[in-house]
Amino acid sequence: MSSAPGYQAPTVTVSSAVPRRGVADAVLIVPVVTGDPGPKVLGGEPYLDDDTVAAIESGLQALGASGAEGQSHRLVVAGLPVASVLAVGLGKPRDEWPADVIRRAAGSAARSLDKVDSVVTTLGVIDLESTVEGLILGAYRFSEFRSAKTAPKDPGLRKIVVLAADAKAATKKAAERAVDIAAAVATARDFVNTPPSHLFPAEFAKRAKELGETYSLEVEVLDDKALTKAGYGGIIGVGKGSSRPPRLVRLAHRGGGRKSKTVALVGKGITFDTGGISIKPAANMHHMTSDMGGAAAVIATVVLAARQKLPIDVIATVPMAENMPSATAQRPGDVLTQYGGITVEVLNTDAEGRLILADAIVRACEDNPDYLIETSTLTGAQTIALGARTPGVMGSDEFRDRVATLSQAVGENGWAMPLPEELKDDLKSTVADLANVSGSRFAGMLVAGTYLREFVADGVQWAHIDVAAPAYNTGSPWGYTPKGGTGVPTRTMFAALEDIAENG
């Protein structure tokens, strides 16, 4: 993603030798592993001679470094054309390195070099793509709302040189793919980090439209009048408490022929969630700026599919609304009609995500997709069941497991969850076809998944990724993950699209 709008990634160059010019202010990042009596440089040949390696290892030993995973130490080494060396630990030596270990190490290195604008690294010898992704994602910043008093005075990391034994076209193409993936994740992070005062449904739709048009996607935006006329009762019901009316955005990448697969993407775009009349506690409500994390990831993913020219059709359906309490807000006990005709008793207005998603799912299934992937910050129960870093993946058994496996492979660590049939009984209503919540406090994530399943068309292979906690890091930064928006599950969805493009 090299042109506006969207995140502007650093420039990445693949080189087969350490540059001798233009790197005087750069930092050389080298991986090290634990050893005896101190850390050992990994993958230094042929870029670093024996004397340089010995100097790095001796300096690290003097600093008390261990080479533990994520540990970093900076030192000056004579004879190199760079300003300094940063050694980043990978932990114990291994025969094969998991991609996410390299990605995390690169991210940790980038985060520790906050005021450095240029790096050279030998990490790419181990895994070039993971190195590029980790460096870009670790260097990510969001400072749009900082005044001149607190905004960073330096530009941050803008130039990356990755050393690789083979700097041929295929290697450079792999690096470009990694840049595109990292830029897509960063674009999703930007959306999530933008405060609700500045990212409300109409503005979110505008930005999504600009992105779509920039990358030649088909774009359709429905405003509140069009949504009402077409019968999108869930989106209208959730959004009617706000002075800022809802939207539905459709973005389509047409990359396949008549026989290619079609994948529908759906993402929850609640630009802020107070809970509505069933209002949330004040403590930590500001975290609900992230309640459109699913929509952000879906928009970034369909743009990435276009950037990578995937030979399949990818159609994103993104509902956007703000859930507010007011004289016009829906009430507990109200009945609405979802798009497609199913009536729903709204027992809890804070279970609003499933209402807008249900409308979008029905609309997405009208495109007759082979697969449906949808994602949202669906339930607090995800956090209780799986913690802050593990998305829950629900859906049709085979495709659910496929998506979860791919998620684990890319380091987003989705975990397959069941949808027991008996949970449907918990959603019975005395006045409508369904209730939007159950009367039990158990299995909240699975109950929400069971609700969504009612709207998926027969024959469509389906997976829902619940990222209630993983989409927004409320703790300290770690690896390539910053505080705030994470961009999860952009990489999972793109991995699924690539897998479908290759294997059907």
From TrEMBL:
GO cellular component: cytoplasm
Annotated positions binding Mn(2+) 2: 268, 273, 291, 352
Sorted UniProt keywords: Aminopeptidase, Cytoplasm, Hydrolase, Manganese, Metal-binding, Protease
Obligatory cofactor(s): Mn(2+)
EC category: hydrolase
EC number, UniProt record: 3.4.11.1, 3.4.11.10
Active site: 280, 354
Binding residues annotated for Mn(2+) 1, in chain numbering: 273, 350, 352
Compartment list: Cytoplasm
Gene Ontology BP annotations: proteolysis
Free-text comment on the cofactor: Binds 2 manganese ions per subunit.
GO molecular function, one term: manganese ion binding
Catalytic activity: Release of an N-terminal amino acid, preferentially leucine, but not glutamic or aspartic acids; Release of an N-terminal amino acid, Xaa-|-Yaa-, in which Xaa is preferably Leu, but may be other amino acids including Pro although not Arg or Lys, and Yaa may be Pro. Amino acid amides and methyl esters are also readily hydrolyzed, but rates on arylamides are exceedingly low
Predominant localisation class: cytoplasm
Protein family per UniProt: Belongs to the peptidase M17 family.
Functional summary from the UniProt entry: Presumably involved in the processing and regular turnover of intracellular proteins. Catalyzes the removal of unsubstituted N-terminal amino acids from various peptides.
Entry-linked PANTHER family: CYTOSOL AMINOPEPTIDASE, LEUCINE AMINOPEPTIDASE-RELATED
Protein's name according to its UniProt entry: Probable cytosol aminopeptidase
Lineage of producing organism: Bacteria, Bacillati, Actinomycetota, Actinomycetes, Mycobacteriales
